[in-house]
Amino acid sequence: MRPARALIDLQALRHNYRLARELSGAKALAVVKADAYGHGAVRCALALETEADGFAVACIEEALELRAAGIKAPVLLLEGFFEASELALIAEHDLWCVVHSLWQLEAIEQTAVRKPLNIWLKLDSGMHRVGLHPKDYHEAYQRLLASGKVARIVLMTHFARADELDASTTEQQVAVFQAARQGLAAECSLRNSPGVLGWPQVPSDWVRPGIMLYGATPFEVEQAAAARLQPVMTLQSRIISVRELPTGEPVGYGAKFTSPRPTRVGVVAMGYADGYPRHAPTGTPVVVAGKRTQLIGRVSMDMLCVDLTEVPEAGIGSPVELWGKQVLASDVAQQAGTIPYQIFCNLRRVPLDYYGE
Ligand SMILES: *Cc1c(COP(=O)(O)O)cnc(C)c1O
Q: Which chain regions cross the lipid bilayer (predicted)?
């Protein structure tokens, strides 16, 4: 059997969820969209269900997958519905629903629903992606109330630059939000993972941690709260071939690496078809047989090469950690010019093995 695996530590997932609650002192919706950032939404949600205040997903398809698995906790649709016809299912399955655009508000006014809806009314406080314009916010709130179709409204917004700890944008967004919500007596939700970890002064009755649940930092710099996260995924495989090269020999496609000295090269059963980033360059950290070494040459579809010159004890069958508790996914991501969010979401073909139930 091909040895490539992603081990998922559910104990670490629970630790990170509790940390989000502890740091924020708020209720926390565990964000499990995109199959829990590649970690398996159903298994992750089941592991958190007894303690989570609820979950958040991107769309009704993802929400129904959780309901089909027996998850009874609240599930928020972060983009609401894409067509008014989804409203019947939203009511039937007791899903919570973001309203981010006026067309959604109108659809709610015009559609008969069997049960009152839980709405999260989203303000565009400066990110300019989705969310209502501040000038429309009060009126939208009043219209939702007047529609008679709404049981509860939570006021929300989303930060564009909370991962930049020195950017003033986050405080400006908070000010825009506070001004827009003046006079509206409802709970609010502002903070995502970087908000929870890096912006403790920002009020938020509900927080929406995503990446931090999986134990990866959203910051490019070291940060004290993020240092308390526990990595959940270990992407591992084994050495399947070893060769000794003299100085001056190329390795892999495009000969992007040439041995600068006699080099012992190990081949690992892991490639970009598994989601390992093809743009990870020579020098990207990897752990072989418990020792830190580096990737060499181009990543290919099913294999990649590592330098074993300083790991003489490693041979065929030696375990390799591509990322996990020894090599951080965020470090691999940074080397590859991307973010841990993307390398987790790109994971495919690799079986997921769960532990720490
Ligand atoms: C994805 C998402 C989150 C979670 O963001 P993280 O940075 O992963 O914590 C929170 N809120 C909204 C609206 C989202 O779309």
A: none
Partners of 265 in the β-ladder: 243, 307
276-281 LR contacts (CB < 8 Å, sep 24+)? 276/235, 276/304, 276/322, 276/343, 277/332, 277/333, 277/336, 277/338, 277/343, 277/346, 279/336, 279/337, 279/338, 280/332, 280/335, 280/336, 281/335, 281/336
- Which among 13, 17, 24, 31 is the best mutation to test ligand 1's pocket, defined by most ligand atoms within 8 Å of the CB? 31
The encoded tokens of residue 350 equal 């690799």
- The response to whether 129 counts as a known ligand-binding position is yes
- What secondary structure letter does DSSP report for 131? S
Q: How many whole angstroms from 236 Cα to the centroid of ligand 1?
A: 27
Could you identify the residue written with the tokens 């139930």? Answer: 357
Q: In angstroms, rounded to a whole number, what is the distance separating the alpha carbons of residues 173 and 166? A: 14
pLDDT single digits (tens) 251-298: 999 999 999 999 999 999 999 999 999 999 999 999 999 999 999 999
**% of the chain beyond a pLDDT of 90:** 100
Q: State residue 240's pLDDT score.
A: 98
Residue at 90: amino acid letter: I
Q: What structural domains does the chain harbor? A: 10-214 (3.20.20.10), 233-355 (2.40.37.10)
Instruction: Give the up-direction half-sphere exposure of residue 58: CA atoms within 13 A in the CB hemisphere.
Output: 7
Q: Which atom of ligand 1 is nearest to the CA of 209?
A: 9
Q: What φ, ψ does residue 118 adopt, rounded to 5°?
A: -95, 110
Q: Is 33 a catalytic residue?
A: yes
